[in-house]
Design brief:
Layout (H helix, E strand, L loop, with lengths): L10 E2 L10 H13 L1 E6 L4 H6 L2 E3 L1 H10 L4 E5 L2 H10 L4 E3 L8 H4 L3 H10 L4 E5 L4 H5 L3 E3 L4 H7 L6 E4 L2 H11 L3 E3 L12 H10 L5 E3 L5 H6 L2 E2 L2 H10 L4 E5 L4 H8 L4 E4 L18 H10 L8 H17 L2
Parallel strand pairs: 2-3, 2-4, 4-5, 6-7, 6-8, 8-9, 10-11, 10-12, 12-13
Antiparallel strand pairs: 1-13
The structure holds 1,3-dihydroxyacetonephosphate and iron/sulfur cluster.
C-alpha cells in the first residue's frame, strides 16, 4: 500500500517579474504572424504556452473566441474536444492542435454509439451535454454547456422535459443541486478531478486556516461541500481577485495556477493536493509543449478534419448554448 499524504504542500508564492521569452517562444510568435494564426490556450496549459497565447481562458471563453476568430489558422492549445469545438463553430478555418493524442477521460466516458442507444431506448429525454465530449456526442445533444454556464443552460430547458446530463456525473450532480432540477446523470468523470480528496484538502486547510478552498465542479461532492467556492476555471480568477484573502487552495488542474499568478501576482496559491501528490496535473493537457506548438504552426499539422454532417449537427446545440448564455 503506497504511503499517502506524505508530502509538503506545493506553494506558489507572489510572482517575481516574468523572464524574457525563450528562443522557441519567439519562434512561435514569428510563425503566428507568418501564418496569420491566433493562439487560444486553456487555463491548464503549461506556462510557456500560456505566455505566447492571444487568449487564455476556460471552455466557454475559448468557444466564443474560436467562433469570432478571423485569422486563417486557429491553434488550439488544449485537448482534442476543444479543438474540435473550434472547428465546429468556425469550419472555414484551419484548426490545429500541438498534439492530436491530447484526449480527455471525461469525453471518452461517453462514446457516441452508447449515447445513441440510450436515446433510442429513452426517446423523450432532453440531452444537455457538457462541452467535454466528442463531436459525435454533441451531434446527438439538444444543448451544450460548460462549467461556466451549466446552471444558466439547465434553467432554460423546458420544465416539462426530463433531462439527461452527459458525460460528467459530478458537474451534473452539482447543477442538479444548485437548480433543484432532477436529471438523469451519465456515469462519467474526469480522472484528474476525482483524485482530490477531503482528507488531503483538510490537511492543507489545517496548515493554512485562512485560505479559501476554490474547487472545480468536476470534483466529487464531498470535496465541493468542503470548498468555499465552486466554479469554472475562469470564475476562479474573478473569485480570487475580489476576495480579501491573500492565499488560496486551488482544487483543479495545477496549470490553473500559472493563469492566477499572472493575473494576481501579489497573491499566494497552493495547489490542491490528492492523497498521493501535492499537485494534480491532467496528463492530456500536459501533452502539449512549446516545441510541439512551434512545430504544428510551422507544419500547419496536425489539423482537425470532420465529417460535414456531424459538424453541422453538432453546431446547432453549441449555437443554442452561445445564444442562451449571452
Ligand atoms: P473549464 O475551464 O471550462 O472550467 O473546464 C475545465 C476542464 O476540465 C477542461 O477540460
Ligand atoms: Fe478531461 Fe479532466 Fe483533463 Fe479536463 S482535466 S481535459 S476533464 S481529463
Amino acid at each position: 500500500m503506497p504511503e499517502t499524504l506524505n508530502y509538503e504542500p506545493m506553494i506558489f508564492a507572489p510572482k517575481a517579474k516574468e523572464a524574457p521569452l525563450s528562443e522557441i517562444q519567439e519562434q512561435v510568435l514569428a510563425l503566428k504572424e507568418e501564418k496569420n494564426a491566433v493562439i487560444l490556450a486553456h487555463n491548464y496549459q503549461v506556462e510557456p504556452i500560456q505566455r505566447v497565447a492571444d487568449y487564455v481562458g476556460d471552455s466557454l471563453g475559448l468557444s466564443y473566441k474560436a467562433a469570432e476568430a478571423d485569422a486563417d489558422v486557429i491553434v488550439f492549445c488544449g485537448v482534442h474536444f476543444m479543438a474540435e469545438t473550434a472547428k465546429i463553430v468556425n469550419p472555414s478555418k484551419t484548426v490545429i492542435l500541438p498534439d492530436m493524442e491530447a484526449g480527455c477521460s471525461l469525453s471518452d466516458s461517453c462514446p457516441a454509439e452508447k449515447l445513441r442507444a440510450y436515446k433510442e431506448a429513452n426517446p423523450d429525454l432532453y440531452v444537455v451535454a457538457y462541452i467535454n465530449c466528442s463531436a459525435g456526442v454533441k451531434a446527438l445533444s439538444d444543448v451544450i454547456c460548460t462549467s461556466g454556464n451549466a446552471m444558466k443552460i439547465v434553467e432554460r430547458v423546458p420544465e416539462d422535459r426530463e433531462i439527461l446530463f452527459v458525460p460528467d456525473q459530478n458537474l451534473g450532480n452539482w447543477v442538479a443541486k444548485q437548480t433543484g432540477r432532477k436529471m438523469r446523470l451519465w456515469p462519467g468523470s474526469c480522472y484528474a478531478h476525482v483524485l482530490f480528496t477531503t482528507r488531503a484538502l483538510e490537511k492543507v486547510k489545517m496548515q493554512y486556516p485562512g485560505a479559501p478552498v476554490v474547487a472545480h465542479p468536476e470534483c466529487v461532492e464531498a470535496v465541493r461541500d468542503l470548498a468555499d467556492e465552486v466554479c469554472s476555471t475562469e470564475k476562479m480568477v474573478g473569485f480570487c481577485k475580489s476576495s480579501p484573502a491573500d492565499t488560496f487552495i486551488i482544487a483543479t488542474e495545477t496549470g490553473m495556477i500559472h493563469r492566477l499568478q499572472r493575473e494576481l501576482p501579489d497573491k499566494t496559491f497552493i495547489a490542491g493536493p490528492t492523497d498521493k501528490c501535492a499537485c494534480n496535473e491532467c496528463r492530456f493537457m500536459k501533452m502539449n509543449t512549446i516545441e510541439k506548438l512551434r512545430d504544428c504552426l510551422r507544419d500547419l499539422s496536425p489539423a482537425i478534419e470532420m465529417d460535414e454532417q456531424i459538424r453541422a449537427a453538432a453546431f446547432t446545440p453549441i449555437q443554442r448554448m452561445l445564444d442562451w448564455s449571452r
